[in-house]
Design a protein that fits this description.
By secondary structure, the chain is mainly alpha-helical. The chain is built from nine helices and three strands. Helix 2 runs antiparallel to helix 5 (141-170), helix 3 packs parallel to helix 5 (141-170) and helix 3 packs antiparallel against helix 6 (175-202). The radius of gyration is 27 Å and the shape is elongated. The mean pLDDT is 80.
Length: 324
């Protein structure tokens, strides 16, 4: 059975192909550089959608000996590729706009072009919102990136429609390339954002929102034996996460009791994060006398200091590399 993410991106790819044809048809009717800019961006939608299809297919493959963390990192390559394609499209649109400022070609059949671009904007906005929502729900950064791209395309089309309406009623043809420059700026910004997200993921930049969520889950499901947690590291692989951390436990617990406590942590985080599967590698630290000040075990047989305060976990104390 084809994964839901793959079905969604294939639908997006098919619609992008149809919209690209419609936009080029509108350009040949009107000879508008702004419509050409929109059509060029749609070519990028198709190319990026094709790469996203392969990315989602590959990221869904199971772990193997050569990829012990799975294949999810390819999704960061996918959004990086999409961002680069968007950026290149923005540069090409700027170049074309400068040419049209110089040559001032005539425009034709503006009404028909307006209706065609309006139709593509409605479809793109609806499809983009659906894909972005699906990406958030399924934890897929590829779907989220593709959905944001389609919505950006729709917004640029809406701006284009407004400009063409002004052009129609004023006859000022310089508005056409001017709008193309504005659209190019919007496209360049979105391309940069996607490339920045790609680089962050490939360099294992910590997702602070996930750290905050894990801290909330640990605090809510806390058991008395969990004295402290620290040295947390978070790596994202597609819609899955790998986390390393240290947990301070009473030194006298038996091995099976330690395993039970660590398994409870892993199960609680996976249960409450939902779509995002988390693989934990947890290192147990034995408590030391200084740990007594934060230990909640009332009848601890080896307590040397009274309890003073319970540690409330947050990114401030989960992430630092420290002992106990």
């Amino acid at each position: 059975m084809i994964r839901k993410e793959l079905r969604i991106i294939l639908l997006s790819l098919g619609i992008s192909l149809l919209l690209t044809v419609a936009k080029f048809a509108a350009y040949f009717l009107t000879h508008s550089v702004a419509i050409l800019s929109d059509a060029l961006e749609s070519i990028i939608n198709v190319v990026a959608g094709g790469f996203a299809c392969y990315s989602i297919y590959l990221s869904g493959k199971p772990k193997d000996e050569n990829h012990p963390y799975g294949h999810g990192k390819v999704e960061f390559f996918s959004i990086g590729f999409e961002g680069a394609m968007i950026f290149i499209a923005g540069v090409l649109i700027l170049f074309k706009a400068v040419q049209f400022f110089i040559t001032h070609p005539g425009l034709e059949e503006i009404d028909n072009g307006l209706w065609m671009i309006a139709g593509t904007a409605v479809v793109n906005l609806s499809m983009g919102a659906y894909i972005a929502w699906s990406g958030k729900k399924l934890g897929s950064i590829t779907l989220s990136g593709n959905g944001q791209h389609l919505m950006t395309d729709a917004y640029s089309s809406i701006a284009l429609i407004a400009a063409l309406l002004v052009l129609k009623f004023t006859g000022k043809t310089w508005i056409d390339p001017l709008v193309s420059v504005a659209v190019a700026g919007l496209i360049l910004r979105k391309g940069y954002q996607l490339m920045r997200q790609s680089i962050s993921g490939l360099m294992d930049e910590t997702d602070m929102k996930i750290v905050d969520r894990v801290a909330e889950i640990l605090n809510r499901n806390r058991r008395p034996a969990w004295i402290d947690a620290h040295n947390m590291r978070v790596q994202q692989y597609g819609n899955n996460y790998h986390m390393d951390c240290h947990v301070t436990l009473p030194w006298y617990l038996k091995l099976n009791e330690v395993h039970e406590e660590l398994k409870f942590i892993e199960d609680a985080v996976n249960r409450e994060l939902g779509a995002n599967e988390v693989e934990f590698f947890i290192h147990p630290d034995p408590c030391i006398p200084a740990s007594c000040r934060h230990c909640q075990i009332a009848d601890c047989p080896v307590r040397q200091h009274p309890m003073e305060s319970r540690i409330e976990w947050s990114r401030a104390n989960l992430l630092p590399n420290r002992k106990h």
